[in-house]
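Write out the bound-state structure for iron/sulfur cluster.
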Amino acid sequence: MSPNPPAPHAASAPGRVLPTLNADGSRFVIRPRVAKGRFWKRRAFVAYGLIALFFALPFVSINGRPALLIDLGAAELSVLGLVFRPSDGAVLMLFGLTIVLTVFLVTALFGRVWCGWACPQTVYLEWVYRPIERLIEGGPERVRALDAQKGIAPRRVLKYATFAALSIVVGNVFLAYFVGVERLGEWVTSSPLEHPGGFLVMAAVSALMMFDFGWFREQTCIVACPYGRLQTVLIDRQSTIVAYDAGRGEPRGKAGKRSAALAVVEPRGDCVDCNACVATCPTGIDIRNGLQMECVSCTQCIDACDAIMDKLKRPRGLIRYTSKDILAGKPKKILRPRTMVYPALLAIVGGLLFWQLRDRPAAEVWVLRNTGAGFAVLGDGRVSSQLPLRVENRTEAPRTYTVELVDAPMFEQASPRAPIELAPRGTTVITLVTLAAPDVFVHGERKVQIRVRDDAGFEKVVGATLMGPETGNGNGAAAPGGAP
Ligand code: SF4
Ligand code: SF4
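---
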């Protein structure tokens, strides 16, 4: 790679107030030069692996369920064969906390490694959309020439048509994570008029992809992504970052033969001010100005600078993975408050999550509130009380459930008297109806225990209150039928 002319997208360029903002308020479009060094090759390997995973995952099923499905319509989350519902609030909260703490820990240790190596924004922009752009329009200079050209060049039309087709494909695969491949297949192979809602969602997602990867690009990282904004609080001076070694690089100056006398009077560092690192930066910053919020740790400046150092026969690593403290001559410290607190919290939260998942019941039972009085006095003087129960079958097999009162001989159970069948992951409301003498109730109510069992070993006893008339004294005799 040859040294570049002064980078047109350095923030210090005349007329520029930010790397992507001109002084007149217009956007300065970044057209980065690709630096195909060792990190670029490793990142390509990771990126294409992630893309393959993204395309394959909706088709993988575990225990008859998609490996990952966020079914908003059914309010279900399927992960690796397990199905979670809003009733799994504790598990979902612990799962979310585990992700957050993992992000905190990884960022404290390795800075924005996620942004540079695995974020879908970077992966698709740098390994799919930009390579297509380079293939159709050429390198940065040719793309800039097209930018400056009046009217739309055929090559640009072809690029956007390709982007649109690609966005529809990527958008559809993305949708498969929310509606499943079967439903998506139906949507794709039938007329949009048969599923207008689904078609609109599909079109909106594809349009969003087109907007993001075709035009908005680095602005997503700079102005829209909250993770980037959190960097200042998530990393410390020991966190690994991509940084320029100013101690070695400065004072910078052009390469070239200089007399020994001049070299003594005016010593120079290793930075030859070639701007290769700036020209390759996808967010348009100059890493030599220190760590900046816009830096997504993509390592392109490392590759660009290493190529220059190789050419000059100087050691690589003028820009490298390091930390602020190491650059300041301080030792590396793995153990520090945040790298001890985050793992400790992770261990606690992860342990609780494991415990919750291991003891996850095969069904869930809730006692619901009565919407009416909850009882009625029959013609023969007995009291009929009703109590709704919601039962959720959390398994992937049909189950039959029996509902019965526990140690309540004063009540006759009128309903349900037969087992109730529930489909896999089905939910139903079962109304328990009891008959009892009026004096069974105290102050209009009687506490009871209800046992719900299935035909595969599940059993849960829940406490509930049956409603009755205020006139009772709690001494009612056993009901003729008694509890089943
Ligand atoms: S400064 Fe370097 S690591 Fe940061 S975004 Fe720019 S090229 Fe990537
Ligand atoms: S840091 Fe490296 S790539 Fe950047 S201007 Fe200096 S020598 Fe060139």
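---
The pocket of iron/sulfur cluster (ligand 2) is lined by residues 244, 249, 271-277, 288, 304-305, 308, 318-319 (CB under 6 Å).
The chain has three domains: 16-234, 241-327, 363-467.
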